[in-house]
Amino acid sequence: MLEFLRVLRRQGDxxxxxxxxxxxxxLAELFFKxxxxxxxxxxxxxxxxxxxxxxxxxxxxxxxxxxxxxR
Length: 71
Hints:
single chain, 3 helices
């Protein structure tokens, strides 16, 4: 986990990943009531993964130049 935080800070990607983390945390707090820490933690991490994949795909699409656009 510490290495993950170092890489985020070094690459400057934390502004891209932080909203997904916060959204996953809020969703987990509101909706996941499994009465088991392990299940809730796993569901939180899976939710964060899905949100992070979607945010990353959107960020890549916004950064990539549109195909066929004249320069």
